[in-house]
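RECORD TYPE: inverse folding
INPUT: structure tokens
STRUCTURE:
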């Protein structure tokens, strides 16, 4: 288990937070560049000393400012993998994995490495050099090396950043499987939603050195309850609205745009929200585009607009629909764009269910603990 409470001050940046990760579980630190994610890993690994607080790994205190405890990095038994991998180009795959192992028992080391080669699907590549294998294979070699010394914890700093999107997707489930057999606490730094959901048992959203939200990835990322969190995780549509009606029987609220004669939008009933201003989040992937309004549909929101922008958004396209001065961003595949012959100026309907919308709070509010039902 990893437990830490720390502050760290350098120039104008101040880190002040706590983390906890159980053995056999993965914690994802999610946030923008400069949020302090890598600083946390460096502090746990012993590469920097926090200004105050404590850090314990596997029940052993490795840092405590008040007790004047400081365990140097090489005694912390930490596996640390960055996006560069740092493989030795002059060593084979086998020797890269073996680097740093005790030489007291050559037979035991050989058996361990052979086992890792099999688990990481690297058998047959042991005599190759890093430049002779793919990026995904290099990543697995680096991860095998990090686990070869039987660390008490594993730290992964943007481990997929150097992989292209196709290879990243192919690698995610495989890495999750590998981490499960390790049975040690794992902390993963990323700013990609797909990686966070695939790898994390829990996610902690960090911004400017502070925790904004934490909980299960599917809940925190699926229905972020805070405006800043929603913005950080890439919710494309954040619309300032005014609540004008609620229906407890239907479990919905009706909202209209602030200070605009715009369309009405039905959203799920929010706890503590019966009237007044709020902000509604809608993901671009939850909006369907059509040339006609769909009658007898379960989708409660059908809004007409005109296409104002079409931009590439790999692997498809992003459409901006101007709906009575409200810009709605929608995702669409290249095939749909072509078959529907959508162009700037096309008149379309944006269609989405009330359950696809969620309320986001002002970013000045305090830390969220998000539970499986999406409430605080």
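DESIGNED SEQUENCE:
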């Amino acid at each position: 288990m990893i437990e830490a409470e720390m502050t760290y001050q350098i120039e104008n940046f101040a880190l002040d937070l706590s983390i906890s990760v159980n053995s056999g579980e993965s914690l994802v630190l999610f946030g923008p560049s400069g949020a302090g994610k890598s600083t946390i890993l460096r502090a746990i690994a012993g590469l920097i000393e926090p200004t105050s607080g404590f850090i314990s790994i596997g029940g052993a205190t490795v840092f405590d400012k008040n007790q004047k405890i400081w365990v140097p990095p090489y005694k912390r038994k930490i596996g640390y993998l960055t996006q560069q991998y740092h493989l030795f180009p002059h060593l084979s795959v086998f020797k890269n994995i073996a680097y740093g192992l005790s030489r007291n028992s050559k037979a035991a080391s050989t058996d361990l490495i052979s086992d890792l080669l099999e688990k990481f699907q690297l058998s047959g590549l042991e005599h190759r050099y890093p430049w002779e294998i793919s990026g995904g294979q290099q990543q697995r070699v680096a991860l095998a090396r990090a686990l070869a010394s039987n660390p008490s914890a594993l730290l992964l700093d943007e481990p997929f950043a150097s992989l292209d999107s196709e290879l990243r997707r192919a690698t995610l489930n495989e890495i999750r499987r590998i981490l499960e057999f390790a049975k040690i606490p794992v902390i993963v730094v990323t700013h990609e939603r797909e990686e966070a959901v695939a790898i994390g048992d829990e996610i902690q959203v960090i911004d400017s050195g502070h925790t904004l939200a934490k909980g299960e990835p599917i809940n925190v990322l699926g229905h972020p309850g805070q405006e800043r969190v929603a913005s950080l995780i890439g919710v494309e549509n954040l619309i300032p609205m005014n609540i004008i009606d609620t229906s407890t029987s239907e479990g919905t609220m009706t909202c209209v745009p602030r200070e605009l004669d715009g369309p009405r939008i039905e959203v799920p009933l929010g706890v503590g929200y019966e009237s007044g201003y709020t902000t509604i989040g809608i993901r671009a992937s939850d909006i369907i585009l059509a040339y006609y309004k769909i009658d007898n549909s379960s989708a409660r929101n059908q809004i007409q607009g005109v296409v104002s922008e079409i931009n590439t958004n790999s692997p498809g396209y992003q459409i901006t629909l101007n709906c009575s001065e409200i810009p709605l961003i929608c995702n669409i595949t290249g095939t749909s764009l072509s078959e529907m012959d959508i162009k700037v100026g096309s008149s379309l309907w944006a269609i989405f269910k009330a359950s696809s919308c969620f309320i986001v709070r002002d970013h000045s509010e305090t830390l969220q603990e998000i539970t499986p039902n999406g409430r605080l």
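NOTES: The two ends are 25 Å apart (CA to CA).
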